[in-house]
User: Fold these one by one.
Assistant:
Number 1:
Amino acid sequence: MKDQNCGYCMRGELLDRFGIYVCDLSVSTLILFKEQSHPGRCIVAYKDHVSEIVNISDAERDAFFADVNRAAKAIHAVFHPDKLNYGAYGDTGCHLHMHLVPKYKDGFEWGGVFEMNPGKVFLKDEEYAEIIEKLKAAL
């Protein structure tokens, strides 16, 4: 089930506004968040357009969290954060997804809640490509 107005479902221009497709995981998609104030920030989005974790079966939930764990391990391997924050929001988007936000003791917003889109750090296309290749290798 797909929503024609959802970047996670449709990809393309809708996704390009905030993220870059990395790869498909078992029941979800790994997306690199374009705004990189937190180096390595990614999103794991469930394969179907469902709003809540209670809308999927226990087995699907377990597979989704296994994908989140797999992505988290890759982020840790590539970026070595001091802590990884996990955020599950979607008041307006209503597509089950989780933000994986690396935090660094000497970095941006350490000790506080991360901003959804601080709009401070954007990279060159080749820098995004390098991150994506490193994440894929670590998966």
Number 2:
Amino acid sequence: MTGIQARRKLIVIILLCVAVGGALLRRFAEPASTMRDIGTLLMLLWVPIIGNIISWLVQRLRRSVAPEPSAFETRGVFTAHALVELTLRAPQLPSEDIPIPEGEHFCALVLGHEGFSARWLVPSGQSLRRGQPHTLQVEFLAPTVALPRFPRETIFRMLVGESFIGDGRVLQVADSA
């Protein structure tokens, strides 16, 4: 628990005790007396904390929900639909110029105003440097929709998140797709 969390917890406990003290004061005070009004005010100090408790409960409920698997995870084994030449753009900051590690990566390949979900693999034991062309295999999430739009020599852009991070062209389309 961080220092801020500990202080917040302490504040909640103190305000709860003040509210309970206000309830007791209100219970045993004479009707229409100043002490009864003070007890009411002490009980009202607890109201802002209720929002924090509700927020905490909502965060707990959200954490317990397992993330949905991506559409590619349900498909299983990687099946190459196209062979592409991809050049990743150099980052704006030199400190971010790190090699792309081996493994599976997700993106959208963009033609004009249309984007097609895809994944690509960096072969085992290799990494990709930015600014250099690389030949990679790509699998489309919906190959029946995407492949007619990606014939040989088609130029495209690669979108990850909200940024275009690369440019490429189709070298070959798989026959089995």
Number 3:
Amino acid sequence: MIEALQFEFMRNALMAGLLAGITCGVIGTLVVVNRIVFISGGIAHAAYGGIGIAFFFGLPYLVGVLGFSLLVSMLMAWVTLKNRHRSDTVIGVLWAIGMAIGVILIDLTPGYNVDLMSYLFGSILAVPDSDLWIMAVMGALILFSVFFFYHEFLAMSYDAEFAQLRGVPVGFFHFFLIGMIALSVVMIIRVVGLILVIALLTIPPYIAERYTDSLIRMMILSTILSILFTIIGLWLSYTFNLTSGPSIIMVGGAAFFLSFLIDHFRA
């Protein structure tokens, strides 16, 4: 792996993975403890509509994906607040419509053949310097927001009704959290792709939750695990000539089942 770092694309891939890993560790923790994994999956898959919009109208990739993801995420946040009993159905519909819009617009884009695999399963080895800077800024904004409002997110995550009685604007922070998930999804798409985003957002926090007793410790351990999965997955993909995104997720999946075995033998 060390010799691979002489190549710029590998250094960029490692940096992109580290940035995504830090974001996944923090936001993924909030996703898991708030039980909004399905919303995160819906945003990730609906984001494909943003890819189609970007290519069809000749917009920068990040502009199309970020704009569409934020729009869809706000719709999902509104639905989950106003109609919780049918929110899973609406999220599923938005998920499907978003992907359908993306596929149709890409089909209609004249003279352009899009590499679908790079968006579905990630293209971490093709991340340019410009995207790294954007990912760094987005990641910094997300981390600052989470830690500045840490106590509000803590209260909302474990007892939303009590937090509301204590004066915490739970509705606002619900929209805020869903919006940050959309930003995180846009970042992670370049690393593992649309289909695998949900795994990187949920596997490290789920493992971390089993071995920690506070939200902040869960975030820290989840971040460490996300970074480890990324580094090991990149090493495996480089060594065995495998696709990077699925390699990262398979490392996480192996750790997921290993944690179950450890708990089984400890019991």
